[in-house]
Amino acid sequence: MEKPLIFPIPQQMQVTDNPFVLDESVMIIVPAKASEKDISLAHALIRELNDKYGIALKVETRSDIPADKKVVVMGTIDNPLIKKYCSDKNLNLTKKSPGTEGYILEVNSNTIVVGGSDDAGAFYGLQSLRQLIQSRNGMKVQGVKVKDWPALPFRAIRMYVPGPENMAFLKRFIRDFMALYKYNKIIIELNCMRLDKHPEVNTGWQEFVKYMQYSRSNSTEGVHGEEKNSSHYDAGDGFIIEKQDVRDLVKFANENFLEVIPEIPSLTHAYYLLTNHHELAEYPGDKWPDTYCPSNPKTYDLLFDVYEEYLDVIQPKMVHIGHDEWWGAPLGVCLLCRNKDYSNLYAGDVNKLHDYLTKRGIKLAMWGDFLLESVRGKGPQQRTSSIGGKYLSPGGLRPEVVKQSIPKDILIFNWFWIDENKEMELKKFGFKQLYGNFTPNIGNWNERIKKIDLAGGAPSSWTSTNEFNFGKDLMLDFLGCANLLWSSHTIKQIDQPAIVWELMPSIRANLKGTRIPSEDQNTVEPIDISSHFNLAKDSKLFDMNLSNIKSGALQNGPKLFQLSNATEASGKCAIAVGAEGKEKNTLPNNVIGIPINEDVSSLIFLHACARPAGNQKAYFNIPNTFDSPDLLGWYEIVYEDGFKETVPVQYGVNILEWNPGGQKSLDTLVGETGAPQKAYSYEADPIRCSTQPADSLAFFAFEWVNKRFGKAIKEVNMYGSNHYQALQQDYGKVVTKPMESNAILLAAISKVKKREVYKPK
Predict the structure, then answer these.
(1) Are 632 and 655 in contact (CB under 8 A)?
(2) What is the pLDDT of residue 670?
(3) Which of 115, 329, 462, 626 is most exposed, with minimal Cβ within 10 Å?
(4) What is residue 690's DSSP assignment?
(5) Pairing of strands 454-458, 433-436
(6) What CA–CA distance (Å, rounded) separates 510 from 522?
(7) CA distance linking residue 616 with residue 631, whole number of Å
(8) Contact at 8 Å (CB) between 303 and 267?
(9) Mean pLDDT of the chain
(10) What ranges in 136-180 are assigned the alpha helix state H?
């Protein structure tokens, strides 16, 4: 499937042969007394064109749309220029058509018009325009007529608050990903903001984080080895986040039409509250308690003090109260709760929070797993601790308690949507629900959403908020879900990776926040590495089939490579180094001395691996997310002065196998978390390398940027990893096993040359 011009796919779009040429003769026009929102649209477009494409435009005030000039006009139906355009063109743009968050976008040779049914709609029209501009590299805008609106009202991504060093990344992600692809809410787990009333909560959290990091732990256990709920200690990257940083983040999100919904863990996942308040824990004697006692009134004195500070800073319309994974304390260990019905305890806690928040005009959301016995079991659940002890934990709430005692105005996050019967149970109880931990491999989408009161969906990140984790694990989920939640044009799962491949270069450029030399009109030249080739074109190692590999020039955008003729190179087509794992590997472990001898801005490696490898979700190794993808080897960049930089080659990060895609790359764990991401490589783009159109043979272009401008690079050395211990899926502890043997195949290297200094004449 080809990359759509606009993503998510618009509800209605007609492509015309009447493009708009972008240059500095273009005017962005606004009416007299333009609204603040309309002015902000104009400034956002100016910033986009200036920063990314070197086009400097200005805003001009006009009372009409001139016929003899090239103009851009953006705003809602209340904007008199938009109203006049729609009247002249007989376009039906009103508050109700296309409706809430809807817009029209029309592009012809003289005019670009973005008109919204409301401010949000005009904003989303601008996002579609940004994509059209990017698709032609800022030179032209494809002629289109678009009428578009969202399929569902609640389009969110759930994540942890980032640490101080990753705040800038999240702002890029908000503006250049979430807004661009028309998400409208961001759910941020906050358990680590600076607290004025209870600084001891902050110090307790820091103590807990240090223990978890330095003990290399994912989770803790109870006094006698009982299973605990997820630790979430990588929220804030383990640091305390200042209130002003949270305020700034909320303001920035709101400016990009994203509502911030704080998730403040309550009842469970309460490590942050209890590390220095053991007297409020449900499990006496637990060193790292995660569940508070709902029978102790002092619990709520502390909890609501903490809530008060979060509400004051964020001013939310909705709060997510957590309430999942309720098994951190065995039944019967708390003296205050021992003889009480756990269903009533849970419902009582929910109602205390509901009363507190609704009195302040704030809506509630929560995870819904303990509302259904079909999910968490009927009655107390028998468990066995890690040292063999038997104990009981709560099962699902009794149905009559859910029916009578859980307020039905709470939005339920349904992460158990693998079973359509369970969402029907929530419907029968009278809840509005949302697909939580949402992934785009959901089955029967078009039919099931008609049967329930569905607000929308929210894919989740369950580890530190940073580019590495988001990039390698979640781009396909985030993009696929964006299309399901906005568009009525469903994309088949098998077609999703190809769209991600096409979108990834612009996504990466947006999220990195650094300059990419090959994208900045610099000269790209191939380097001849054929003298180091050691892999025959007809090699059958690891069941490879490179027989159809091309020779000669190969270009993808600005990236230019020269593939050597295998016949002229003694039948060899690439440099191969072996990554030795479980099996013996006959390939050499290293190839030394690939000459560069130049001060380059970057090197572009065209490589692939011999077989699929592993790329586990980062949360399976919270203390060391770097090693969540398999390390196949590395490049060693050797400078003229002997300094060396190591460039890791990691599966799913900057390399995939030579025959990517197909069924082997798909997430088959429908409705479950934890599937490894094998569909795309975040930092490297596939380039078809086969002489046969139907052949999937591809290598991946990965650009390494030189950090030492002015220093010549002598050579590149290439190494395969040796008995690398690959991460496995285990939610409780970090588990590794030897990786399967593999190989890195390097077909070409190109260099991005430095620009010549102007020489006075």
Answers:
(1) yes
(2) 86
(3) 626
(4) B
(5) parallel
(6) 19
(7) 12
(8) no
(9) 96
(10) 167-173
d(C-alpha 221, C-alpha 361), whole Å? 38
b/e code 340-353 from CB counts within 10 Å (16+ = b):
eebbebbbbbbebb
Angle (nearest 5°) at CA 183 between 180 and 189 = 120
Nearest-angstrom CA–CA distance, 56 and 136:
17
> Which residue type occupies 6?
I
Contact assessment for residue 74 and residue 114, using Cβ atoms and an 8 Å cutoff: yes
Q: Are 612 and 741 in contact (CB under 8 A)?
A: no
**Per-residue model confidence (pLDDT) at position 671:** 85
Q: What is the pLDDT of residue 672?
A: 85
Angle (CA) 341-368-309 rounded to 5° is 90
Query: What pLDDT shows up at residue 1?
Result: 64
- Three-state secondary structure of 534-569: CEECCCCHHHCCCCCECCEEEEECCEEEEECCCCCC
If DSSP codes are grouped into helix, strand and coil, which group holds residue 485?
helix
Cα Dmax for the chain: 93
Beta bridge partners of 545: none
Q: Are strands 185-189 and 154-160 parallel, antiparallel or unpaired?
A: parallel
pTM score, two decimals? Answer: 0.97
Residue 203 near residue 250 (C-beta atoms within 8 A) = no
> Would strands 12-15 and 20-21 be described as parallel, antiparallel, or unpaired?
unpaired
Of 330, 402, 319, 329, nearest to 368 by C-alpha is: 402
- Of 628, 657, 627, 682, residue with least CA distance to 475: 682
Q: Minimal CA–CA distance to 717: which of 471, 529, 521, 508?
A: 529
Q: Which residue has the tokens 């009333």?
A: 197
Reported as type and span, the H/E element at residue 353 is helix 342-358
Beta carbons of 412 and 433 less than 8 angstroms apart = yes
Cβ burial, residue 371 (10 Å; 0-12/13-18/19+): buried
Q: What parts of the chain have a pLDDT lower than 50?
A: none
pLDDT on residue 566: 63
Residues constituting the chain: 761
Q: Look at residues 167, 363, 157, 188 and name the one whose alpha carbon lies nearest to residue 265.
A: 188
CA-based Rg of the chain, rounded to a whole angstrom? 28
DSSP state of 678: -
